[in-house]
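Methods — Computational structure assignment.
A single polypeptide chain was analysed. Its primary sequence is given first, followed by the predicted tertiary structure written as structure tokens.
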Amino acid sequence: VLARIAEPYEDRLHDDAEATRRYLAVLADDPGHPDALRGLDRLYSKAGRFQDLLENLGRQIDVAATPRQKITLWERIAGIHDEEFLDHAKAAFAREQILELDPAHDGSLTDLARHYRALSRFENLAALYERHFALVADAERKLGLALASAHVYGDDLASTERAIAAYERVLSLDPDHAGALEKLVQLRENAGDEDAAIAALDALADKAESPAVKAEHLQRAAKLLLSRGDRDRAIDRYKRALDASPADTAIAAALRAAYVARGDVTAAVELLEREIAATEGDRLRAKLTTELAVLF
């Protein structure tokens, strides 16, 4: 009865203060009265009384009859903490409560990731991405979540082993993903797995969109091979890099040095002679001619 008496003050008389007082009087006798709680919900929302509104929404959750109703109320709580108070911790807690009720709630899985990142809760963030990845069916979204988890493992957690596994999963979804291949190269190098790093660089070279990029990847592979004393395979990569970028004097010089280190002076001389024939500048031609004389 008291709740019905309060409604005219809200709806017809537009006396929000008196309506609020009367709804509060109802709740003093019956703390879970649904009409009084919803009435105060409207009034607090209208007045921007967000702290009071949060308390009210919490009481509505306590008396809500269904999980769907509870989820809707927790979503509102999450939004208030996020948008009005910029409180990532409390917004994250609200989203976690939704996931307790509905583990596949897509909006909360997505929003919670943002809060975890803001809070630097990177282990939680990685686990959340794994959970979300397992739930989605869309190929593009799965790829995005796989990449996101890989970034967390590699960049935020510095967990090389888990990052490698995550980027390999990205490549299982998109074998041509250049970004994942590049990351794998770096991670494999850092882990001392040079064979895998070289294989990744070769794959990047095969997928390169420009000759210059292809040459760059092949040079990196050649340097790794030289570092382990594998001159023959290094020379092969340098030759392929020079084929991709014939005017690159740095590649030519590296290839000549590799030939000389292998004891193949004839090949170094032939390469220099080709360079001299193709060189137009007098200064560079003189420099190359001097190098040729030294070889002889």
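Note: The chain has a mean pLDDT of 89.
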